[in-house]
């Protein structure tokens, strides 16, 4: 403390940089003598939970417009490549699924006057392999938020799990 006081008196540049030229006790304070004990952090922590592993994640996209569906599948593949996810398959069905509804023009009479309506549903599929649970959740949330109108998304996950203890691998 005396060294600091002497230095304070001898060097006017230090005094002017602080802007205080009078009492040194206001500027320099002794160190605190209170010591707080360090507690063991591992006692209060819950057990470590391992991340899930997925062998394969299958995305099934349905839509009424094939161009929008194709554009969205390109978006999904590009997002997967940016996250480092391996895309193994990306394909579409050759023909659309057609659903036909036949209605009478007039409800009461004239059965020969009918109108037929058709709804076409197009499909695209993407298979992703070897994903962790956190990467899968992040990816799926991102592509679900950017799902265009007129499209639906179905996700099927194949999870890797440990063998149960009662099942023993065969010995040779």
TrEMBL record:
It comes from the Eukaryota. Its main location: mitochondrion. Residues 58-156 form the Small ribosomal subunit protein uS10 domain. InterPro entries: Ribosomal_uS10_dom, Ribosomal_uS10_dom_sf, Ribosomal_uS10m. It is found in: Mitochondrion. Gene3D superfamilies: Ribosomal protein S10 domain. Signal peptide: none annotated. Coiled coil: none annotated. SMART domains: Ribosomal_S10. One of its GO terms (cellular component) is mitochondrial small ribosomal subunit. Keywords: Mitochondrion, Ribonucleoprotein, Ribosomal protein. Belongs to the universal ribosomal protein uS10 family. This is Small ribosomal subunit protein uS10m. It comes from Papilio xuthus. The gene is LOC106116155.
